[in-house]
Amino acid sequence: MTSSVVTGPFALGEALAEREQAALLRRRTPVDVASGGRIRVGGRDYLNLSANDYLGLADHPAIKAAFKEGIDRYGAGAGASPLVTGYSRAHQQLEETLADWLGVEAVLLFNCGFSANQAVLKALLGKEHLLWQDKLNHASLQEMGSQLPCKMKRFGHNDMAALERLLEPNRGLIVSEGVFSMDGDLAPWTALATLAARSGNWLMIDDAHGLGVLGPQGRGTLAAQGVAPARVHIHMGTFGKALGVAGAFVGGSRELVDYLVNFARHYVYSTHMPAAQACAVSKSIELVRVADEARAHLVRLIARFQQGAQAQGWTLGASNTPIQPLLVGESAAALQLAERLRDRGVWVSAIRPPTVPVGTARLRITLSAAHREQDVDSLLEALGPCPSSDQRGGAHVA
Ligand SMILES: *Cc1c(COP(=O)(O)O)cnc(C)c1O
């Protein structure tokens, strides 16, 4: 035995110090008020260009009223997991509404998208299976994929030729996203559906950022690209982004849903989402289906921002969605720019590795139908002209 000091099994302090050193330490900021595309933090009001509340529904009076009425009727909490007594008429109605909206046979509700993704992969994939994932898929998908006994193969972002080379017939599941969360671009779903059908593999879409925003009635990326819902075996979406509430769902065949009810451990062993929340989400979908006006307004804001930012010399990602990545490169430079914007009353998040690849730190600017055209102009004014091209050094569209 040496006489060195025993520090315990976990080097938490070291890990934190390392992150701080690399300008990667994360801190939270409590928000006091959030409403109408604005937030109040520390007594000051900011234009909020960081939220995923793309249609400005998070504080919609009708959704808040539906939530409150749900509480009066069902109570604050579900009280149990869905297979015990946590599954209510409100949950069932939301499942039916979703199935009708998206054109799938059946739907199952989850507390959040992170657990919905993990539940699906874990329930389906055994060691005899293969899992193909776009390398920019969400952390919940990547992480579960790497922990499962199946073999995971990651293909280059939206690289269909690479995917085709990796595919083996009848072996497993291909997973990609509708709208990529950090880049705002879309996956090519017609090509994905063709590859899946030709190889006899299943296909899963995570449409967390497309749902509500894209396609007729806001039905999402598949509808926007004209891909029939039946060509995709597993549909996953969340309620915490454009729908303005919280929670998630998985949709597909009745058989898939029956299977998940029996084998998805994140579903079976977790208290169900409050019924009142299901009431709020049902109301939100009702509004989203007829929100063409808000979606058109959002498209105009996106174009206004793109034109303005490019005219000022900034490099944007190849995105036409409300997620507009402004590429900076180094983490410290991204943090500095975010700070400068805050000084000018604009709240934007710097996104750094490991959330995005090294050297592609960015400001992830998200627009919302709650914003007005003059809000976009305020953002552009706060950004000012891109100071020098080496600010953008190393930046590229991933
Ligand atoms: C936000 C997000 C999730 C997780 O959903 P939560 O309901 O927030 O847990 C999953 N996938 C993608 C692509 C997301 O952006």
Key terms:
single chain, 398 residues, alpha/beta, four-stranded mixed beta sheet, 15 helices, 14 strands, 17% strand, globular, disordered C terminus, binds pyridoxal-5'-phosphate, biotin biosynthesis, 8-amino-7-oxononanoate synthase activity, Aminotransferase_I/II_large
Describe what you observe in this structure.
It is built from 15 helices and 14 strands. It has helices at residues 12-21, 61-74, 82-86, 89-102, 113-124, 139-147, 160-166, 189-199, 221-224, 254-263, 265-268, 275-289, 292-311, 331-343, 373-383, and strands spanning 33-35, 38-41, 44-48, 106-110, 130-134, 151-155, 172-177, 202-206, 234-238, 248-252, 323-329, 346-347, 349-351, 361-366. Strands 4-10-9-8-7-5-6 form a 7-stranded mixed sheet, with helices on both faces. It has a 4-stranded mixed sheet with strand order 1-2-3-12. The chain is globular, with a radius of gyration of 22 Å. The chain binds pyridoxal-5'-phosphate. Pyridoxal-5'-phosphate (PLP) binds next to helix 5.
Question: What is the secondary structure topology, with strand pairs?
Answer:
Elements: H1 12-21, E1 33-35, E2 38-41, E3 44-48, H2 61-74, H3 82-86, H4 89-102, E4 106-110, H5 113-124, E5 130-134, H6 139-147, E6 151-155, H7 160-166, E7 172-177, H8 189-199, E8 202-206, H9 221-224, E9 234-238, E10 248-252, H10 254-263, H11 265-268, H12 275-289, H13 292-311, E11 323-329, H14 331-343, E12 346-347, E13 349-351, E14 361-366, H15 373-383
Parallel strand pairs: 3-12, 5-6, 5-7, 7-8, 8-9
Antiparallel strand pairs: 1-2, 2-3, 4-10, 9-10, 11-14, 13-14
Helix pairs in contact: 2-12, 4-12, 5-6, 13-15
Pyridoxal-5'-phosphate is lined by residues 112-114, 117, 138, 140, 177, 181, 206, 208-209, 238, 240, 248.
